[in-house]
């Protein structure tokens, strides 16, 4: 039984959804961030990043963010729903459409492992994010939680999106965003009942946000509003998991022959080409160096004693390529390796080598939902940068104020 909570969201005033809401901060370059802050006073970035370069403590910055958000409410840029509501959000372009429910997820469900994780979190980041939540007093970007297919929820979403949306706009990355509000008791009850039928949820994106919200809930058990974290709930069939490819600096100046010879110990070479090759199956990889692509496949056959993590292509890259050939063990901190999301295309991966910034590119086959869920069910964790999941959510389109 999964518990969710309707809430009175703060959303941008009419026709301001596109001006106010933003992509995730880490998707912008520093130049892009500064350009938006300078040119668009309504952008949510002017609330959460206004003080980023000031020489003041994090506590002072976070309190200032809280003050700036309150000012945006006072001047009418953000408007609060009159009733506790549930929201339907759709993100789409010509190729794909993602639709889900925005509501409060239960921190108690997280603590009881009904909301399952597939990544480890860093205690230092958890602590900082918890402080951020405590001092700003709001969630502005939902976590992404997935559930199994649910006909009842699909029917509610379908009937909702036939109505006029609260917000409709196209962002600078070509995505169309739509938001509807569900405030009638009967429909809300239908949504709640659908979640009551579920045994668990899985975090697709937002592990640190979930963990820090849970910490805040435990710190403030007397405060009802902190017992939930804003989330976008979406069917597991309605997300896309992209490959997360690697580019490597060959700092030891190994020759092409040495690298290929090392690979030959554990991989079969299938074909090679000067044109881009991409993996077609699990345990198959495409390596680009010296203007040539090679498609290779791991020779090892895994057995029942092998863990699901050992069999992940992202782990195989580390165990059989990055570590033994290039001496790269710590993916989080070693600057000799970088990661390129699969939605950027293999042309970008190749260009990182062709322009001399890196020496080797490695393309992998994407993880699937079943693998991600199995890892979470077994209480294990994926290696860093194993998945790049879409949709990526907007910040400042719905805000949950404690």
Task: Describe the protein in words.
By secondary structure, the protein is an alpha+beta fold. It is 32% helix and 25% strand. It contains 13 helices and 21 strands. It has helices spanning 17-20, 30-39, 45-48, 58-74, 107-111, 123-136, 151-160, 185-196, 207-219, 256-263, 313-326, 346-354, 369-377, and strands at residues 4-5, 10-12, 78-80, 86-92, 97-106, 115-116, 138-139, 143-147, 167-170, 176-182, 201-205, 228-235, 240-242, 244-248, 267-273, 284-289, 292-298, 337-341, 360-363, 388-390, 400-401. Strands 1, 4, 5, 6, 8, 9, 10, 11 and 12 form a 9-stranded mixed sheet that branches. The protein starts with a strand and ends with a strand.
Specify Rg, calculated over alpha carbons.
23 Å
End-to-end gap: 24 Å
- Helix % is 25-40%
**Helical element count?**
13
Given the C-alpha coordinates, what overall shape results?
Answer: globular
How does the helix and strand content classify structurally?
alpha+beta
> Describe the biggest sheet?
9 strands, mixed
Number of β-strand runs: 21
């Amino acid at each position: 039984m999964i518990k969710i909570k309707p809430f009175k969201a703060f959303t941008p005033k009419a026709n301001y959804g596109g001006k106010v809401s933003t992509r995730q901060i880490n998707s912008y370059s520093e130049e892009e961030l500064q350009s938006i802050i300078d040119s668009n006073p309504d952008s949510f970035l002017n609330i959460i990043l206004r003080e980023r370069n000031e020489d003041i403590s994090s506590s002072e910055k976070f309190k200032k963010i809280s003050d700036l958000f309150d000012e945006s409410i006072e001047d009418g840029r953000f408007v609060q729903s009159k009733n506790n509501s549930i929201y339907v959000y759709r993100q789409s372009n010509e190729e794909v459409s993602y639709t889900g429910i925005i509501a409060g997820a239960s921190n108690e469900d997280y603590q009881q492992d009904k909301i399952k994780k597939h990544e480890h979190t860093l205690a230092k980041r958890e602590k900082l994010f918890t402080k951020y939540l405590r001092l700003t007093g709001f969630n502005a970007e939902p976590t992404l939680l997935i559930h199994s297919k649910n006909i009842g929820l699909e029917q509610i979403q379908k009937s909702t999106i036939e109505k006029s949306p609260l917000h409709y706009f196209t962002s600078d990355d070509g995505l169309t965003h739509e938001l509807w509000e569900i405030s009638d008791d009967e429909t809300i009850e239908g949504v709640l009942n659908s979640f009551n039928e579920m045994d668990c949820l899985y975090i697709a994106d937002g592990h640190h946000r979930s963990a820090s919200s849970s910490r805040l809930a435990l710190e403030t058990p007397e405060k009802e509003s902190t017992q939930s974290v804003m989330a976008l709930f979406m069917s597991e069939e309605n997300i896309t998991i992209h490959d997360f490819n690697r580019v490597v600096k060959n700092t030891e100046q190994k020759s092409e022959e040495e690298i290929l010879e090392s690979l030959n110990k554990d991989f079969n070479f299938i074909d090679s080409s000067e044109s881009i090759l991409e993996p077609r199956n699990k345990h198959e990889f495409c390596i680009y160096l010296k203007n040539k692509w090679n498609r290779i496949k791991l020779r090892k056959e895994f057995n029942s004693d092998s863990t699901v993590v050992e069999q992940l292509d992202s782990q195989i890259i580390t165990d059989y390529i990055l570590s033994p050939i290039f001496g790269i063990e710590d993916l989080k901190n070693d600057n000799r390796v970088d990661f390129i999301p699969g939605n950027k295309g293999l042309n970008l991966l190749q260009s990182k080598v062709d322009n001399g910034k890196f020496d080797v590119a490695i393309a992998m086959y994407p993880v699937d939902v079943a693998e991600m869920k199995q890892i979470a069910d077994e209480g294990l964790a994926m290696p860093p940068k194993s998945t790049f999941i879409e949709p990526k959510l907007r910040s400042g389109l719905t805000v949950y104020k404690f």
